[in-house]
């Protein structure tokens, strides 16, 4: 089936508010539901866990979808490619976990202890992850202050990986409101490969992709689409200073508003009405 556009959304700071960590602009979900009804596939590309995505984003989407059959055009890849969610013809949710890329249990315990001892005021250890480790900003904490603590944490995590001889297998990946420790192969680009494969399995052939991100790590989505010689537009909904000094062989569209408000701005201006 040939479709005009596949829409790819990062979640944190794109679909949800980075400070409130929930859908604060319900019109974004309305737009997504409208895309699905128009047979334009939608994919989520997130570092979040199954449970978080289902509770905070997918369930609100399901409430707006009467015809569950259109969910065949919906894909959610979580934990940066470690897990995926699709829907069967009858609307049944299907989940898959790649157990080959999980991080060691001993490392999980070591990092959890570090966070609870040294960083408990600003962040917490996410117990819901299945293939990776995430340390997340506490709800309501200042993003600016979090970034200062995040820099310290990143140094501590790098040392821990070195001490455990895991630097060649795992990597530290900071984003707007969290810091992840993950298999060296995963990432937003790796997740795009999973999305492309799932589209292929569904016999969906898009003419173009439109992808949204809010952190430097999200650029790997655009890099992967560029590498595959696919037509795409990449929308960045945070301060363009985040990408300062980085040269890319493709254009980047910046929104006037930041985060989820920037996403809604683009959808309203470029994607038509509901």
Describe the structure.
- This protein has 274 residues and is an alpha/beta fold.
- The protein has two domains: 2-99 and 186-270, Rossmann fold; 101-183.
- The chain is 35% helix and 23% strand.
- The chain has seven helices and twelve strands.
- The protein has an eight-stranded mixed sheet, with helices on both faces. The protein has a four-stranded antiparallel sheet with strand order 6-7-9-8, with helices on one face.
- Helix 1 (26-37) crosses helix 2 (50-64) and helix 5 crosses helix 6.
- The longest helix has 21 residues, at 143-163.
- The chain is globular.
- The model has no long low-confidence stretch (mean pLDDT 95).
Shape: globular
The CATH topology assignment of the largest domain is Rossmann fold
Helix-strand category: alpha/beta
Contiguous helical run count: 7
Rg over CA atoms, rounded to whole Å, is 18 Å
Please report the total strand number as a whole number: 12
Percent helix, as a range, is 25-40%
CATH architecture of the largest domain: 3-Layer(aba) Sandwich
Average pLDDT: 95
Beta-strand portion reads 15-25%
CATH class identity of the largest domain: Alpha Beta
The major pleated sheet works out as:
8 strands, mixed
- What's the domain count? 2
Terminal CA distance reads 24 Å
- SSE order in H/E notation? EHEHEEEHEEHEEHEHEEH
**Spatial order of the strands in the main sheet?**
5-4-3-2-1-10-11-12
Uncertain spans, ≥5 residues at pLDDT below 50?
Answer: none
> Going by CATH, what is the homologous superfamily of the largest domain?
HAD superfamily/HAD-like
């Amino acid at each position: 089936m040939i479709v005009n556009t596949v829409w790819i959304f990062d979640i944190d700071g794109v679909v949800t508010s980075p400070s409130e960590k929930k859908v604060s602009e319900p019109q974004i979900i309305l737009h997504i539901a409208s895309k699905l009804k128009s047979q334009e596939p939608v994919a989520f590309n997130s570092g979040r866990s199954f449970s978080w995505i289902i509770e905070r984003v997918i369930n609100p989407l399901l409430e707006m979808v009467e015809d569950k059959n259109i969910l065949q055009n919906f894909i959610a890849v979580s934990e940066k490619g470690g897990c995926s969610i699709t829907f069967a013809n009858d609307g049944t949710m299907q989940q898959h976990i790649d157990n080959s890329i999980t991080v060691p249990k001993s490392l999980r315990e070591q990092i959890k202890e570090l966070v609870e001892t040294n960083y408990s005021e600003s962040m917490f250890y996410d117990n819901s992850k299945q293939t990776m480790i995430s340390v997340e900003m506490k709800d309501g904490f200042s993003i600016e202050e979090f970034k200062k603590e995040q820099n310290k944490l990143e140094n501590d995590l790098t040392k821990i990986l070195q001490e455990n001889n895991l630097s060649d297998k795992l990597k530290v990946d900071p984003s707007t409101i969290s810091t992840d420790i993950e298999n060296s192969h995963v990432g937003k680009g790796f997740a795009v490969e999973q999305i492309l494969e799932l589209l292929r399995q569904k016999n969906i052939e898009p003419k173009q992709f439109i992808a949204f991100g809010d952190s430097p790590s999200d650029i790997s989505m655009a890099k992967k689409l560029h590498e595959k010689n696919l037509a795409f537009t990449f929308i960045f909904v945070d301060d363009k200073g985040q990408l300062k000094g980085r040269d890319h062989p493709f254009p980047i569209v910046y929104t006037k508003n930041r985060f989820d408000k920037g996403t809604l701005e683009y959808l309203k201006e470029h994607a038509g009405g509901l």
